[in-house]
Design a protein that fits this description.
It is built from 18 helices and ten strands. With 492 residues, it is an alpha/beta fold. The strands form four sheets. The protein has a four-stranded parallel β-sheet with strand order 2-1-3-4, sandwiched between helices.
């Protein structure tokens, strides 16, 4: 790491964002002045003068900043280059759609669409070029940070984090790894030899606190894999009744007002969603039926808030009888049970659309922890007692774990992500997560299947749970349960 330039990271990111926005704004200015701010579009005598053109460009820039911030498109060096290009491209597509609708409203008719398409293509091309140049400059100025990795008594968890950090070699370089049992004095020497940063994973609290304070005193960066209690306290309230600082963690879930607003949002969004998605749902249903003549939908028991059981509805994307005798067989990356139609609707998340009905009925919410299969809840709760904390809120179609996690993210890491949502809930957060869901729809890594080894392990888990559940389905459910019963996209 070039320490001399380290303090300029934020400045570089800010300048890089301004450059990207300036390039997109220049393209917009050209298209607006050449194709839209003309009598043929706006009407004779209704074209904008200088100030009006500045206002239009200013609005475009504001929208661009908003969506770039939402999708993390300005975080050069934070995201991978491909992810950054994707985020920026998605941002300009959203802004260009809004700009086109805005132009059509102002001209009181649908404006010609070809210029906005040309602008979008030019935007994406410029994004690829500019992002590559700016990212190259960032990696040259700020080489990977050399880190010390201190791990605890859970080798699988430590290895998982080590693997992820090593996957970003342009950003992190794990120079040394040691077990916490080395002791505080020896760990201090190791930390002194790695002034660029320390990673801590599953280190006992008493030792972790001493190491964090030592690093704080030496202005050494610390990366900590949080525990559940860390996440709960993170959003606690500061109390200043006394001269002793106190954190208050209410732990009561959402208030009545929040529940009411969230339910109203669910009704509106699911209702509008069903109207907009109905043609796609009809086409999907026909495709499934014509392929093999099997059932279009399948229903499956899931656990939601308070442990209440409901039956989730999805389009069938696997062969009929994909799971024999109630066995849980999670989908793998190249699962032969997935039909050709299923591959398409899983990749595009079309198989999830029927859950809009579950949301409208009140069984689910638009945003919330993904409702898990009953046998998985039972198994995970035995292994991770805190897993039941997810049931403090209603299960959702999208959420923190669905956006920031992957299909094969571990149950404990998904629990942490879900707890971050539960402990930080707000209407604005729900809106943000809904908008961010658009970003992950076509990101392959978010739908990564389990490896065959992981799938086999989860199949064993399912067998243990299924033994006690055979025959528990309510009357009339047996036929619906014979289709695909493997969840996609949430790791269950």
């Amino acid at each position: 790491m070039n320490v001399k330039y380290e303090k300029y990271k934020r400045v570089y990111r800010m300048l890089a964002t301004l450059i990207m926005v300036a390039v997109e704004a220049a393209i917009f200015w050209y298209v607006w002045m050449t194709y839209y701010n003309v009598d043929e579009v706006m009407g004779a005598g209704l074209t904008y003068a200088k100030r009006g053109n500045y206002v239009m460009t200013g609005l475009y820039v504001i929208f661009l900043f908003t969506f770039m911030n939402l999708y993390g498109a300005s975080k050069i060096g934070y995201q991978k280059l491909t992810n950054m290009v994707y985020s920026q491209s998605l941002s300009v597509v959203c802004v260009n759609v809004i700009t086109y609708l805005e132009t059509s409203l102002m001209s009181n008719r649908m404006a010609v669409v070809s210029p906005i398409l040309f602008m979008t293509v030019a935007d994406v091309a410029s994004i690829i070029v500019v992002s590559f140049i700016l990212n190259y400059g960032y990696t040259r100025m700020f080489p990977p940070r050399k880190l010390l990795f201190v791990y605890g008594d859970y080798p699988e968890s430590a290895a998982n984090l080590f693997y992820k950090m090593n996957g970003r070699k342009e950003k992190y370089l794990i120079d040394d790894q040691v077990h916490y049992s080395l002791g505080f004095p020896a760990l201090k020497e190791k930390i002194d030899a790695h002034p660029q940063g320390v990673i801590m994973c599953d280190v006992p609290v008493h030792l972790r606190n001493k190491l964090i304070k030592y690093c704080y005193g030496g202005s050494i960066r610390v990366y900590v894999c949080p525990s559940i209690s860390d996440i709960i306290l993170r959003n606690s309230e500061d109390l200043h009744f006394f001269d002793t600082p106190i954190f208050l963690a209410r732990n009561g879930g959402m208030s009545i007002e929040q529940k009411l607003i969230k339910r109203l949002m669910d009704i509106v969004i699911s209702g509008v969603g069903l109207i907009v998605a109905s043609p796609f749902m009809l086409f999907t249903a026909l495709a499934i039926k014509l392929y093999d003549g099997g059932p279009v939908f399948y229903r499956q028991a899931r656990a939601t808030n308070g442990g209440r059981v409901f039956y989730i509805t999805k389009f069938r994307s696997m062969i009929v009888n994909a799971e024999q005798d109630g066995r849980v067989i999670p989908a793998t990356e190249r699962d032969p049970r997935i039909t050709p139609v299923g591959h398409i609707i899983r990749a595009t998340r079309m198989d999830e659309l029927p859950q809009l009905l579950d949301i409208l009925k009140g069984d689910m919410s638009v945003v919330g922890p993904r409702p898990e299969r009953l046998e998985h809840v039972e198994k995970y709760t035995k292994d991770i007692p805190e897993f039941g904390f997810r049931l403090k809120v209603k299960g959702g179609l999208t959420g923190f774990a669905q956006i920031y996690g992957k299909y094969n993210t571990s149950a404990y890491d998904k629990l942490k992500l879900d707890m971050m949502y539960i402990e930080n809930y707000s209407v604005l957060l729900d809106i943000k997560l809904i908008l961010m869901t658009v970003k992950i729809l076509f990101m392959k890594e978010s739908t990564e299947g389990f490896t065959d080894e992981k799938s086999s392990d989860m199949t064993r888990i399912g067998l243990e749970g299924a033994k006690g559940r055979m025959g528990e389905q309510p009357q009339g459910q047996a036929e619906e349960q014979t289709g695909e019963q493997v969840e996609k996209g949430d790791g269950s």
